[in-house]
Amino acid sequence: MGASRPVIAWLASLGxxxxxxxxxxxxxxxxxxxxxxxxxxxxxxDLLARMTLDxxxxxxxxxxxxxxxxxxxxxxxxGAVLSGGGEAPEDNRPVAWANLxxxxxxxxxxxxxxxxxxxxxDAVHGHGNVYGATIFPHNIGxxxxxxxxLVQLVTAATAVEVAATxxxxxxxxxxxxxxxxxxxxxxxxxxxxxxxxxxxGAAAVxxxxxxxxxxxxxxxxxxxxxxxxxxxxxxxREGYFIDQGDARLDEATLxxxxxxxxxxxxxxxxxxxxxxxxxxNGVRMHANSALITGLxxxxxxxxxxxxxxxxxxxxxxxxxxxxxxxxxxAGIDLVMVPRAYVELMDDLRAxxxxxxxxxxxxxxxxxxILRVKLELGLFExxxxxxxxxxxxxxxxxxxxxxxxxxxxxVLLVNRNATLPLARTGGAVLVAGAAADDVxxxxxxxxxxxxxxxxxxxxxxxxLDGLREQLADRTVMxxxxxxxxxxxxxxxxxxxxxxxxxxPYAEGVGDRASLALSADQLAVLERAKxxxxxxxxxxxxxRPLVLGPAYANADAIVAAWLPGSEGAGVADVLVxxxxxxxxxxxxxxxxxxxxxxxxxxxxxxxPRGHGLRYP
Length: 614
Description:
There is one protein chain. By secondary structure, the chain is α/β, with parallel strands linked by helices. It is built from 20 helices and 21 strands. Helix 2 (40-50) packs across helix 14 (359-375) and helix 4 packs parallel to helix 5.
């Protein structure tokens, strides 16, 4: 990232001037913590020694942009701000994001010590909050590809689009190893297979952070630990069944199934870890010093910082002061407190002054945060690199996303060589509203927290791709599968029916049943009555129970949540690209096999299943 004018001005204000090629020259005495020529640990200790308790508490506080203005950053000495899912500037364009972040950064730099702000966002499959950004397939789709190199390219492209808006901290990758498909976060996991999650999670860290952290975006492994292993029915939140629940498991399972992705991510350079809302054997992770401090920090040697999840301290026992005492003493370094941040700061100050949290624990937390900020190069380049703004939604990124879509498709069934579709011939019928819906195919964490159907951001749909690839055939679309023209039913050789899940995120996506609805099955039946052969394309964040759809379709494709470049699905349906994907999760026959155990009998499709064209 090249230096921008604001960066040059900032360097000048510190007594540093540009010599080109990233070199700097001393123009006056420079405080040690501001001198990029000194070792990072020297700079950390120098800065820490200069800080007051209020300045340290400011570094440990992470409010939402919804309650923050520039004056608040300055007045409260804040060190970090985030945008939660769906939280965006009123003008949701990349340049408006850069203006927002730079404005808050300017306020942070105007404080006594001028410690730069760290801004965070959930860019879990591309810079999803930003209108016009490239939306890549969710992790479950990347898991179907299983290619570390591609994951690294996808996350590197994401990092460029995130950095263009001035943001240098991404709450990704998700390192969960989902064991129960009913969990609404299943699509955020690469696979049910620990080894695959570990390899692709490490690749995602490398892609986001680049060869050196100062050249990339800070990755965040989440959610520590065993969020993918919680037991159905243990969630304490109304309407949730497994999300934020309790992982009831022995230590061997914790270490063999859920820990390896964190080892791999840390080895790949991850410097931020997010604690999970969930519990392990009844102990909330945000209160679990044995796992956060003992396992993560001491045993694994993690020297970055641990951030809490959204307002998670409020789920702990006791008063607000009890909650902050418990969490900080457990090892939480940075508290995500989206709304009541002033109260949090008052509480933290009080428990330190009262001796419930030691000054050493505060210094440890702040030291970790400052270390990562210095590693990121924020002190030298705190502002957005606006030369990157044209890269948001750039065509080469969309081309990469389309390739990822193509390679993530899994051919489950192909009876009588129904696929690939011929490029010439009679009409092709396309049914199902999801066939022409960017919002549905992108899923959650897209423009809004839970996503929503409709043209919510630029992109291509499966229908767009079919019309592009089958330009020499008539492609007819009817969301309900009726296909009547002038009162007469249309009869065709083939119908493509696109069914699946409406968008959702985390707990609101917990589902007791994964069966296709009666309405969806009716669309398939109507299309089948109009065509000799039927291709079923399943848009979903997890394997679904197909029921009668399994027998009523001649070919079945798992398309996952492909993102903004849905035309890539059509590329594979017509044979312009090969089927490469293999199932990253076991696909059940019915709900008696969820969560899957071999004792429940053979699944409909085992993990690793995926057909190929001859």
